[in-house]
Amino acid sequence: MKKMSRREVLIRGTGLGMGLIGVMLSVPAVGFLLSPLFTKQKLTWITVGPIDEVPVNQPTAMIAEVPVGTGYPTPPVKRIVYVVKKRDGPTLALSNICTHMQCDVHWDPSLGNFLCPCHGGLYDIDGNNTGGPPPQPLAQWVHRTHTDAQGRTILEIQNQLDEHI
Amino acid sequence: MIVSRWLTRPFKARMRGSAAWFEDRTGATELLHKGLYEAVPKKGGWAYALGSATLALILLQLFSGIFLLLDYVPSVTDAFTSLDYLRTSDGFGAWVRGLHLWGSYTLIFVIGLHMVRTFLSASYKRPRELNWVTGALLFFLVLGLAITGAMLPWDQAAYWTTVVVTNIPHYLPFIGDGIRTLWRGGEFVGPITLTRTFAIHIWVLPFLMFSLIGAHLYLLRRHGEFGAWVNYSTDPNEDEEKQIGERIRRAEPPYPTKRIARRYSAPRETVPFFPDQLIKDVVMSAVLIAVIFVMGLISGAPLDEPSNPATLSYVPTPEWFFLPLDQFLVVAPTNPLIAIGVFGVLGIGAALMIFLPFIDRSPERRPLRRPEVIIPALFMAFTVIVFAILGISRLYNL
């Protein structure tokens, strides 16, 4: 091995020292920055309420207090669950989160469609995207029902959607 | 010993002595002199005042922003409440918030005019290419600050701006959802979204911004103010080469710069920055700040209802500077394959803007003789305006 000059040793040492500082500081910084990618959302079941009164073929907005499940603890936020009952087929628990830019869609009886106020996205009664920019159907809340002591059908949702939007 | 000798001298001599000591130790006067008496082109000073006005408005944003931090709390539960308190109970708080909002509107407008001015006068040409590049990046930083600032009040307008803007990366293939999650601190908008946006707004973007401003001003002083082509005209009755040679010989620093087209090396007539240009700079800034001062008081900054993700009637409308992009979201295809093309078009547009000096390299400066850049620029401006008009007519049913 060639003998390094004093100057060369100093230059390489400086570079090595700065590199070491850089590596030491970037491990916690980058890890912290990327942590949301690896943090699981805390999932909970939320009781929405009885859905026996919901008329058939008429999407009905119910409000649920949904915990965000990410970040520091905050009070749950109100979210809409559109309960859609069909004469045949399962009852839907649609989210009203537009699959385009996640604005709040609402059922417009005169259009017979869900309408998004932001960019004019349209969905039919089953949540299928029928017009405007939305790339996919409305997602449903992950949900289940049970019958309570009075014989009512109670809808429960989880604070997550059944599709990635 | 020294102190008693100093005290026994006459007052004026004492002051002179102190000033000389301070100057010897710091070189402050010399520095000030260097800054104030530099030569700038004589004609068109009002147009050049747009640059200093941009700086003045950025400083206004810095100071009004620091004052807002005295009350504002960046938390989803308290952000709205703290601004509501600021509006109703904290003396001049509403006015300061009005200054910050109207300051941002004015800043976007003025930095746009400043860009149009440098574009038309072709000030970005050799050797000032990097003045343009840093300036164009500053323009995008200002837009970034404006949009992140609009998210912070966490009222309805801010909440839905946050939802839509943080969802834009979703359409970026492969890495898009990762970026969205990192910005939001989760898959959906939540408490971390606000703290991260706040950190971006008050530290990340301003840090980049002030670094770039330093570079922009350093480069301005290194190459001198170009001004406009009107400052470089020659007398058609005389030998042009001789006139230009004469001009370069007489030029004051920092003119001329080496190895550039001789014709545009040094302006024909210059004036000292102080007081000839500075008075125009100050008048321009004073007029703009007066407008902000009045609008901040009489119009102030609006605060909607508190954020509510369970709304069926609220119609989110974007800030005016975001209208063209919002309309673009309406028409842009959302198919994942086409989305690459959509981001590509936006990216190419931004890249063309930033790297303009490396595309338009001819020494020609007169706007009418540069149709190859003026026409595409007009087309881009036209597209933005059409999208803005379409957006307005869609949202306000005009």
Automatic annotation (TrEMBL), chain A:
- Entry annotated with the keyword Transmembrane helix: yes
Q: Which InterPro entries match?
A: Rieske_2Fe-2S, Rieske_2Fe-2S_sf, Rieske_Fe-S_prot, Rieske_Fe-S_prot_C
The portions of this protein that span the membrane are 9-34
State the GO CC annotations: membrane
> Which coenzyme or cofactor does it need?
[2Fe-2S] cluster
Q: Which UniProt keywords apply?
A: 2Fe-2S, Disulfide bond, Iron, Iron-sulfur, Membrane, Metal-binding, Transmembrane, Transmembrane helix
Could you tell me one molecular function GO term of this UniProt entry? 2 iron, 2 sulfur cluster binding
The UniProt entry, under CDD domains, shows: Rieske
Segments forming domain Rieske: 58-141
**Protein name (Swiss-Prot/TrEMBL):** Ubiquinol-cytochrome c reductase iron-sulfur subunit
Q: What is the lineage of its organism?
A: Bacteria, Bacillati, Candidatus Dormiibacterota, Candidatus Dormibacteria, Candidatus Aeolococcales
UniProtKB/TrEMBL annotation, chain B:
Cite the Cytochrome b/b6 N-terminal region profile domain residue spans from the record: 18-229
Q: Where is the Cytochrome b/b6 C-terminal region profile domain?
A: 263-398
- Bilayer-spanning residue ranges: 46-70, 99-120, 132-154, 198-220, 282-303, 337-359, 371-392
- Would you kindly state one Gene Ontology biological process term found in this protein's UniProt entry? respiratory electron transport chain
Q: What does the record say about its membrane topology?
A: Multi-pass membrane protein
Q: Where in the cell is it found?
A: Membrane
| UniProtKB keywords | Electron transport, Heme, Iron, Membrane, Metal-binding, Transmembrane, Transmembrane helix, Transport
Q: Which Gene3D superfamilies does its entry note?
A: Cytochrome Bc1 Complex, Chain C
Instruction: Name a GO molecular-function annotation.
Output: electron transfer activity
Example GO CC term: the record gives: membrane
Q: Which InterPro entries match?
A: Cyt_b/b6_C, Cyt_b/b6_C_sf, Cyt_b/b6_N, Cytb/b6-like_sf, Di-haem_cyt_TM
In the UniProt record, the signal sequence range is: none
Q: What is this protein called?
A: Cytochrome b N-terminal domain-containing protein
